[in-house]
Amino acid sequence: MELSLLLCHPLKPVSFKNYAKFRPGNRRLLMNQSLFVCHCSSQISEDSVHKVTMQNQGRRALMGSLLVAGAGIALSEAAEAVSTSRRALRAARIPESEYSEISFGLDQPNQKPVTLKYYDLKIGGGPEATKGSRVAVHYVAKWKGITFMTSRQGLGVTGGTPYGFDVGQSERGTVLKGLDLGVQGMRAGGQRLLIVPPELAYGSKGVQEIPPNATIELDVELLSVK
Questions:
Q1: Is-contact 127 188, C-beta < 8 A?
Q2: Which of 113, 153, 165, 167 is 20 to 30 A off residue 77, Cα-Cα?
Q3: What is the pLDDT of residue 108?
Q4: Mind listing the pLDDT tens digit for each residue in 58-86?
Q5: 119 and 99 in contact (C-beta within 8 Å)?
Q6: Which candidate, 127, 135, 143, places its Cα nearest to that of 168?
Q7: Is the Cβ–Cβ distance between 181 and 114 less than 8 Å?
């Protein structure tokens, strides 16, 4: 009695044509013909491995280019954010020629017109501040580039206590005229730089370390309008 054992390739579900025969009581392994040899092993190890290697290299190159591109975009956005922040904190770096102007007192013949200059760092998307509105702002007040008053003091750049006031109430002396007039027309979420002449600041008397007839600068962020 002969038992036929089909030998299968370990990587492919296909049987060899040659097979081994065992006879009961005979320990010798007899082959039907000549010894069989796997002819596909070399092709798999060379061709298939070469293809897989090339595919892996292509994928690595693609992932590398994507990572480089992503890093470039992230660095660009970070640089832009840092640039905007620095310009907000250092208004003097923006040429005064880039500021827009608003003149007041043109309808009063006996009064010299006063010009307030402003530069919008960011246009807000919220409600507009008009006379009668209740607003909350963060501000940084500077004289000759030196900060002498700020609502952000003590809790970092994004902290501090917002300052609230009613727009149009500067005539009562409850808020600085330059801030009151400069915030009008802004929208919530916006940020504006102001160059305030002494007539709209502390006038001919000055205050504390601010001398008489001093022009000051304000960096104003409009937080809310009600």
A1: yes
A2: 153
A3: 72
A4: 667 666 666 555 555 544 554 444 444 44
A5: yes
A6: 135
A7: no
What is the pLDDT confidence band of residue 102, given thresholds at 50, 70 and 90? very high
d(CA 120, CA 150): 19
Cβ(91)–Cβ(54) below 8 Å: no
Beta-strand ranges (E) seen in 34-91 are none
Distance of CA 137 to the CA centre of its chain: 23
* 110's tokens: 């006996």
Nearest Cα to 142, choosing from 84, 201, 96? 201
220: which 2 tokens? 């104003």
Lowest-confidence pick of 16-25, 86-95, 154-163: 16-25
Nearest-CA neighbor of 124 among 182, 192, 78, 178? 192
